[in-house]
Amino acid sequence: MSEKGSPNSARERLKESLSVSLDGQASELELRRVLDGISNDDSLRDLAGRYQLIGDAVRGKTNKFAGVDISAGVMAAIEQDEAPAQPSVDSSEITDPAADLPNGNFAQRLWSSLGKVAVAASVAAAVIIGVRTSNLTQDVPLLAVHEPTVLTQPVQLAQSGLNDYGAASLRAGNNPESRGNVSSEQLAHAQKLANQATRERFRAYALQHAELSAVGGAQSTLSFARLTSFDNQ
Amino acid sequence: MQWITGKVLVLSLLASSAMSAANTQDAQSLLAKMSDSAQSLSYQGEFVYQQGGHLETLSVIHRAAEQSRPQSERILYLDGAPREVIRAGNELFLSHHNGGVTQLQHGPLVPMLDRFQSGVSGDHYDLRIVGIDRVAGRETYLLVVVPKDKFRHGYQLWLDRQSSLLLKSELIDSQGMIIERLQFTSLDIGPLSDDAQSHLEQRPNEVDSNVVVNNQSNPAQAPMSWEAGWLPEGFELHSRAVRSSPVSEHAVDALTFSDGVASFTVFVEPDETGLLSQASEKIGALSAVAKIYREGDQYFHVTVMGDIPLGTAERVAVSVRPVKTAS
Prior knowledge:
The complex is a heterodimer. By secondary structure, chain A is mainly alpha-helical. Chain A contains 10 helices and 2 strands, in the order ααααααβαβααα. Helices cover 51% and strands 8% of the residues of chain A. Chain A has a two-stranded antiparallel ribbon with strand order 1-2. Chain A is elongated. Chain B is built from 4 helices and 20 strands. In chain B, 16% of the residues lie in helices and 47% in strands. Chain B folds into 2 domains: 2-201, Lipoprotein localisation LolA/LolB/LppX (outer membrane lipoprotein receptor (LolB), chain A); 217-322, MucB/RseB, C-terminal domain (Phosphorylase Kinase, domain 1), CATH 3.30.200.100.
């Protein structure tokens, strides 16, 4: 990348690029140049902060953090939309049991009622199986008799951080008798917990995967950087 | 920009038939060198990690193993709430702003295969050095790694011409879209400053969760050992570990597979909650799939996680089963 002309004009162009990139209109090349430039130049860094503020003001946004955060502008400039992830294989296995589930609307209500919570999950299928509750005698073979009930619906998860699996002691099954005992609220709660548990596992496993795959690998830095994806959700 | 990427992939596919074997060998030896350098060199630098619409800046300090001191590494997130990963020998700490400190401890980790070094087979990827570029002020070779089937992602790797260190990496899906990008903005190779050294010696004062790992998995002590009934061609067992579960009292079987470039881990743990969830999710570059395996009255959580396409992870997850010992 050979810069023509004087250092000053190069800097002027960098400034222009900076302005453009904060408007989200920079090409990748410009963007890279800006990122490199900013990292080497204190006054440009300040400028980036000011441009960011100006840009926010123009767009009618206020910026509580008057620091340098060019990520918003960068965001628009770099291809960001990955293809919608479709589980291509064996998804039928998950969804089929849902076909004979009578309360499909319930899950839609669940979807909207949870609309406010923070974490968006992709399509998730929760299986809720029967659990022995304390007032049942030991010889009721709930697990053995009832097939799992499967709900298939996009689900959003609450970010309570609670780990109260104990509250999950409710039972649901495919036979009408036992389903009669389970309210939709209970089912919703169970599903929420089940998904929360899954998320916790994903998060914890991601760290372990990073560590395991880092051993003897050249991409260890990348493996750990990937963990940041969880913070963005 | 997307079409440029697509074009690069298409071009490299077209050119692959005509490509010389020498180029492949060069590319392979370059990858082997990269793997070696990543461990044998000391360096520090800053890089950006971009995934989807998110961009993070991180700094890394890496110290090669010396006589008395193990290889250690510290990764610090420079944006938002401070998060830090410190890895030294057999210890790993992850300090998180709201998740507390997690510590992983394990015995000596001896990988069954060295990634990259074990040879990225030309059977599953087309490897080509396509040019020379400049990253973080340094000259780099641009290496294109194009998958030959739909079970893995593609990569573009920029390797430092001098040291072969990975300076920039792009992960590309089957549509030619860039899923994630790592790019150094500055890098110093060589002896670390005292300041940097001291960062590597720091340890969190308190540890909230401690995971002890038994890597010398003894099949006798594990109630069941597991295997993947289906693996994409070229993936081989990289390591096997039994560790205490991060989310329950049980032990977790963890099998890591690698094809030399991509890797994924299969986790199996018995269920104790009675709440079973099957889910597929793209978390950045990671595909995560949770399935239930049922053996009699006992349910198991099977989780597959790695930088592979979601479809591959799904297919592996449904194939996971206990190893049947001949009785």
